């Protein structure tokens, strides 16, 4: 006759294996990088690894939030989680950082409570439990020292950092900026390096740049204004067409350009005040530039 106890045990093991095989949670384990030598105020980590059927997602609401107390001596400080797909399985890794708020006078074994976790797929939730685990809490004060003999140490002084390197770096940066500013002032003729460029030479340089643009009426007007500004600066006042002869008498060095200047004033009056005019074909921007250079040369001879 067969043993009825053995038959019952066999059926129990069989159905238990079927239940495990049908569970979407294939395995769960917990470990800690360091579970000994912990003292009050230290942090310790618990690493939970859960293997589930693919498609199941961890319900983060089932995990305690950072700052929540686990019991009267543990508090969760940080929580990190990630997952990795492994064929038909998903491996979840959950890292919980705890901080200990308990002082002991001799080594003591404490327990981190079990942690329920929920996973969900297609609206169906399944719950599993990360098992509790232990760690050893070590006293800060030696066990052979009575409480009345304990001497509190003073606070450590702040570390000394020399600021000389920072000052050197700041001085180097300021020197570089000053040098760059001085070069820019020299390059663009700004104070204190402003160069006393004669008015006609300056107008010739600006006309050369303007000559690279299309020969439009607006550009010609701008070029004519450059020459007018140079003449006004040389005369010391706004030089009108009727005052040209008096200007040439006062500055005989420009009398060699009398015909060109008379033609310029005629064209300028037509370009600025006539309607629908176009730039003079025979007195282009290049000719204005040439006239400025001729006047600049006469200015130099006078100097």
Write the layout of secondary structure elements.
Blueprint: H1 4-22, E1 25-31, E2 43-53, E3 57-58, E4 74-86, E5 89-100, E6 108-112, E7 115-121, E8 124-130, E9 133-137, H2 164-187, H3 199-210, H4 217-235, H5 244-250, H6 258-273, H7 285-302
What do these coordinates show?
The chain has 303 residues and is an alpha+beta fold. It has two domains: 132 residues, Sandwich (Immunoglobulin-like), CATH 2.60.40; 104 residues, no CATH class. Helices cover 38% and strands 23% of the residues. It contains seven helices and nine strands. The strands form three sheets. A four-stranded antiparallel β-sheet has the order 1-2-5-4, with no helix packed on it. The N and C termini lie far apart (138 Å). Keywords: Signal.
Which spans have pLDDT < 50 for at least 5 consecutive residues? 11-21
What does the average pLDDT come to? 83
Main sheet strand line-up: 1-2-5-4
- Name of the top-level CATH class of the largest domain: Mainly Beta
DSSP strand content: 15-25%
Helix count, per DSSP?
7
- CATH superfamily assignment of the largest domain? Immunoglobulins
Protein name: Nonribosomal peptide synthetase MxaA
Signal peptide: 1-21
Organism: Candidatus Methylumidiphilus alinenensis
Keywords: Signal
């Amino acid at each position: 006759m067969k043993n009825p106890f053995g038959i019952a045990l066999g059926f129990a093991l069989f159905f238990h294996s079927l239940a495990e095989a049908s569970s979407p949670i294939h395995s769960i384990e917990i470990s800690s990088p360091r579970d000994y030598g912990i003292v009050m105020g230290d942090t310790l980590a618990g690493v939970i690894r859960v293997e589930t059927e693919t498609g199941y997602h961890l319900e983060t609401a089932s995990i305690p939030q950072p700052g929540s107390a686990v019991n009267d001596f543990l508090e969760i400080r940080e929580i990190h989680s990630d997952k990795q797909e492994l064929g038909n399985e998903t491996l979840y890794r959950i890292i919980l950082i705890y901080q200990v708020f308990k002082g002991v006078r001799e080594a003591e074994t404490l327990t981190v409570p079990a942690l329920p976790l929920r996973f969900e797929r297609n609206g169906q939730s399944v719950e599993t439990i990360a098992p509790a685990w232990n760690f050893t809490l070590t006293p800060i004060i030696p066990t052979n020292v009575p409480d009345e003999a304990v001497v509190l140490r003073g606070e450590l002084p702040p570390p000394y950092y020399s600021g000389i390197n920072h000052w050197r770096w700041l001085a180097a940066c300021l020197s570089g900026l000053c040098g760059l500013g001085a070069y820019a002032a020299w390059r663009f003729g700004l104070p204190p390096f402003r160069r006393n460029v004669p008015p006609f030479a300056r107008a010739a340089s600006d006309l050369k740049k303007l000559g690279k643009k299309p020969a439009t009426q607006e550009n010609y007007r701008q070029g004519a204004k450059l020459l007018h500004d140079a003449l006004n600066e040389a005369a010391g006042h706004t030089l009108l067409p009727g005052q040209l002869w008096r200007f040439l008498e006062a500055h005989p060095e420009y009398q060699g350009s009398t015909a060109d200047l008379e033609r310029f004033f005629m064209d300028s009056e037509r370009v600025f005040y006539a309607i629908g005019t176009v730039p003079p074909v025979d007195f282009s921007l290049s000719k204005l530039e040439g006239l400025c250079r001729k006047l600049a040369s006469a200015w130099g001879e006078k100097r």
